[in-house]
Design brief:
The chain is mainly α. The chain has a domain at 26-78. The chain is built from 14 helices and no strands. It is extended and about 85 Å long. This is KCNKD protein. It is found in: Cell membrane. GO terms for molecular function: metal ion binding; outward rectifier potassium channel activity; potassium ion leak channel activity. It catalyses: K(+)(in) = K(+)(out).
């Protein structure tokens, strides 16, 4: 049934993620392991030369280096750099906390700081994720509005839609404009271009100021904007910069805009991944259905007429052998899909719980417009629900 289809999607996605991780681990191991071994050999050679030159034991030197590692974790460096826990450094730290970047170059060392971080991050991360969702809501609204306006201009050029914006009752194309939905691939392309432009502009700022190569700056932008935050490259860590205040403000703006765009892009890509999983499941179900029908035809070839078998096989090809809803039966058309269909099988789904929480908080049940119910965008939770609902609103007649 419907629940089994959802479980199949979940299991297939889990298998694909594990395979993706295994392939990534193999590639990174093949690329990075030889360099790591060469660096270790060079370090062992320098350590041996240093102990021989200064007549030190390897045990004493290693003990000293371990103490330096502990000092490095606390923020102490050989070169003179600004304190990590002054007000500007602390503000930069809380920015990496609430945005979930977490570079790791600054971490609390005291028990009080660690306890405070737990409660501070709990509220701060939740609030920032809400901000990202609201940003995504407005971004998708603007994109969908612009795309629909372009679609209406195309209809006017073809003469289907009058220039005064009123629609004729006899035209099916004009009537279908109310249910028009922008392509998820166009939205993904727009977000990719926006993210690339922000990353290139930010890299042009980081390269001369931080002294990084342009490629390293692009690498830092992706690691920071995607909230991965390795910490191997961190901006705004030197003691002095030219136009220091302006640079820190620009750094804050670029990171904020980049995180918002990449966050939105990830949500759109997740929809494309779900469509791909549905397509894979349809193909697998279609092949299994064909095999079962062949076995049935072989076992009952003396009973069933060939004409009946052909008709049944044609029906299975049209339906792809999946007894699901019309939404799951549709082919990949590139339209923004609805999370309502994905969660419809659950008796107590996340969408119902979200609606109940919203009604409890607002003191009254939320009213759904008839148009939003008809276009299939309602339902869902989180950022995907915001995208679907906003795209539904923009597809309604103005």
């Amino acid at each position: 049934g419907r629940l089994n289809a959802d479980n199949a999607r979940f299991l297939l996605l889990a298998v694909l993620i594990v395979l993706y991780m295994l392939c990534g681990a193999a590639v990174f191991s093949a690329i990075e392991l030889p360099t790591e071994r060469e660096a270790k050999e060079r370090w062992e050679e320098r350590l041996e030369n240093f102990t021989r030159r200064h007549n030190l034991s390897r045990a004493e030197l290693r003990h000293f280096l371990r103490e330096y590692e502990e000092a490095s974790v606390a923020g102490i460096r050989v070169d003179d750099i600004r304190p990590r826990w002054d007000f500007t450094g602390a503000f930069y730290f809380v920015g990496t906390v609430v945005s979930t970047i977490g570079f790791g170059m600054t971490t609390p060392a005291t028990v009080g700081g660690k306890i405070f971080l737990i409660f501070y991050g709990l509220i701060g991360c939740a609030g920032t994720i809400l901000f990202f969702n609201l940003f995504l809501e407005r971004l998708i609204t603007v994109i969908a509005y612009v795309m629909k306006s372009c679609h209406e201009r195309q209809l006017r050029r073809k003469g289907v839609l009058p220039h005064n914006g009123r629609r004729g009752s006899g035209s099916s194309e004009v009537d279908s404009l109310a249910g028009w939905k922008p392509s998820v691939y166009y939205v993904m392309l727009i977000l990719c271009v926006a993210s690339l432009i922000i990353s290139c502009c930010a890299s042009a700022m980081y390269t001369p100021i931080e002294g990084w190569s342009y490629f390293d700056s692009l690498y830092f932008c992706f690691v920071a904007f995607s909230t991965i935050g390795f910490g191997d490259l961190v901006s705004s860590q030197n003691v002095r910069y030219e136009s220091q205040g302006l640079y820190r403000f620009g750094n804050f703006v670029f990171i904020l805009m980049g995180v918002c765009c990449i966050y939105s892009l990830f949500n759109v890509i997740s929809i494309v991944i779900k469509q791909s999983i549905n397509w894979i499941l349809k193909k697998l179900a279609c092949k299994c259905c064909h095999r079962c029908q062949r076995r049935l035809f072989r076992s009952r070839r003396n009973v069933v007429m060939p004409g009946n078998v052909r008709s049944r096989r044609n029906i299975s090809i049209e339906t792809d052998g999946v007894n699901e809803s019309d939404t799951d039966g549709r082919r990949l058309s590139g339209e923004m899909i609805s999370m309502k269909d994905f969660l419809a099988s659950n008796k107590v789904s996340l969408a119902i719980m979200q609606k109940q929480l919203s009604e409890t908080a607002n003191g009254y049940p939320r009213q759904m417009s008839s148009n939003s119910k008809q276009n299939g965008f309602s339902g869902g939770v989180g950022a995907l629900a915001i995208m679907n609902n906003r795209l539904a609103e923009t597809s309604v007649d103005r």
